[in-house]
# Entry
Amino acid sequence: MKTTFTIILVCFLSVFCKAQTPIPTQTQDTLSVIKLAMYDTKVMLKGIGHAYTGPLRWKKDDWIVAGTIAGGTALLYFVDDDVNNFFSKRSDDLPTVLDEVGERGGSPQVIYGLTAGTYLFGLFTKNQKVRRAGALMTSSAVTAGLLQTILKASTGRSRPENGKGKFEFNPYSGMAGFRSFPSGHTILSVTMAHAVAKQFDNAWVKVGIYALGSIAPLQRIWGGAHWLTDVALSAALSIVIVDSIDNYMNKANVYPDGSKKNNSISWKFNVGLGRAGLTGTF
# Structure
């Protein structure tokens, strides 16, 4: 109930705050840190509200993407057991360093620390590009974090390590073993990676960032904490959230010097003999 109230409050504030009026870069440079923080807070609140109310503005192409993601997840459901069995037999082979990086790298403490640190650095140095990046990272992480908290409790999916199978659900049980979907580590790490990758144009840099962001999701599958479908759908939700908030910032032009180019991922569903997959192009 507390989390639900928080989401409703955030959406209310973001929707009913008066329209965000972009402040020219030259003017932003002259504002005090406190006024800049107030401006950015309003931007982030509206971005969070924009992400939560996004489905209300979806058009045909958006629904096609949503249907593709849902269809792809449904197909992955058929291999959940096989993937879990494959990794569970090799759980002892997971390098310790990757296990540590995956476990800690996707934790709320690390992710929120990095997002807050990035934003505060941009705020106190009055670097608009870094401020924008920090605002995108923070608002995306908050949006994804609140959403995954609600979904974990309401779906109550059994974790692979429970041994009860992928079709076992126990909503609102409060037991840690029934909080498999979504994967919190995946949502936060992919949200972070996608928001950071948007700040770079070089494809190889983007690949490196996404590779780092994929460590936590893989570790969660390898360690038996989540099913493949948990991780795949969580990653998709993260990308949709970041793209939604980034699009709001671009269209509202709240950071005038920020790039307004389309930096979202283009999805294509591929089906062939013995394979099915979702390909993202950036």
User: Anything to note?
Assistant: The beta strands are 266-272, 275-281. Confidence is low (pLDDT under 50) at residues 1-5, 13-17, 258-262, 271-278. The chain is about 65% helix and 5% strand. The radius of gyration is 19 Å.
